[in-house]
Amino acid sequence: MAKDDRRHPIARKPVVLELPGMDRVVIRRDVRYRKDGHSTMDLYFPPDRPYGEPTGAVLFVNGYPDAGAERAIGCRAKEMESFISWGRLVAASGMVGVLYTTASDPARDARDVLQQVDLIASSAGIDAERIAIWACSGHGPTALSLLMQPPIRDIIRCAVLSYSFLLDLDGSTAVAEASRTFGFVNPASGGIEDLPRETPLFVARAGRDELPRLNETLDRFVTRGLQLNLPLTVVNHATGPHAFDVVHDSDVSRQVIAQMLAFLKFQLMR
Question: Could you tell me the pTM of the whole model?
Answer without folding.
Answer: 0.96
